[in-house]
Amino acid sequence: MAEPSGDRAAAADAAAAADGPDAPGTAEPLFDRVALIGIGLIGSSLARAIRRYRLARTITVAARTEASCAKARDLGLCDLVGTDLGPIVAGADLVVLCTPVGVYAEVATAIAPHLAPGAIVTDVGSVKQLVVRDVAPLLPAGVHLVPAHPVAGTEHSGPEAGFAELFEGRWCILTPAPGTNEASVERVAALWRGCRSMIELMDPKHHDVVLAITSHLPHLIAYTIVGTAVDLEEQTRAEVIKFAAAGFRDFTRIAASDPVMWRDIFLNNREAVLDVIQRFNEDLTALQRAIRWGEGEALFDLFTRTREIRRSIIEARQA
Ligand code: NAP
What we know:
The chain is α/β, with parallel strands linked by helices. It has helices spanning about 5-15, 40-50, 65-75, 85-90, 105-110, 130-135, 180-195, 205-235, 245-255, 260-270, 270-290, 295-315; strands at about 30-35, 55-60, 80, 95, 120-125, 145, 150, 170-175, 200. Bound molecules: NADP nicotinamide-adenine-dinucleotide phosphate (NAP).
């Protein structure tokens, strides 16, 4: 998806300014200097939302490659950009990790000596127990860690893929450890409310179980189905891709998601994912049996129940 045109962005800015005195985006910026480590789909969407709603005075950005830094510069996403993490986080009152979760320990090691006393470190990663394991022990005393996960995304990657509206009406789950500085938790919540998200607080272990079933398993199934179809096409010369029907096409969209990001999610939410795969296998076996023995009623009952779930997601405006 592309950045909104100048006209749309200007209209949205005007709307933000007209939202009233209590609306996010109209008061003093929440942060003086926000550093985003990683400027892909999520980092660049956050940069755009921070700009649009004036949530920070200055945005600094780090990426791994010069190519992504150049794109961030060309797209006007930030005030300072580079591959060297030290100068990017120096003086920031908020640092947001927006990289794949597999490099969190490496990134935390690199930024730790440069963090300002009292700074808040947060992230956007899809797995949350790993933040406790890989990031918390590396941060200096006096820096506040408030892990977060915006439950919003697309199958696209990179700085051009982001858009300011990505987080609108979506949940952002915060998983601070007990005893975390409350003002810091509130400031991170305010950032996401400023991006028009809704906030939920959760224990990191519970988060990882919930997301294993709602997000990680569906992605694994999509990767499996598309992989199976491609293998079948090779083996049987059936025209699977040519005649891709709606169901298969939807799976191919999900299975086009970033391979690095998803590899890291599965490797770092191993326990919860293996648990839900076990449950899924049992349910799939029950369906297999129902088909084999012609138990139409069992199939009809399940398909009717699942249809209701879709309706409730639409009613909750999360479709
Ligand atoms: P992405 O589009 O692939 O972007 C990743 C960014 O991280 C790139 O800018 C990359 O730089 C940078 N990066 C990678 N390794 C780095 C390192 N060692 N040091 C500095 N920068 C580094 O990924 P994304 O979709 O935005 O995902 C980012 C995070 O958001 C992940 O943790 C993911 O779990 C989470 N998340 C994703 C979604 C989604 O739907 N995509 C939804 C919610 C949460 P280069 O481009 O230079 O390599």
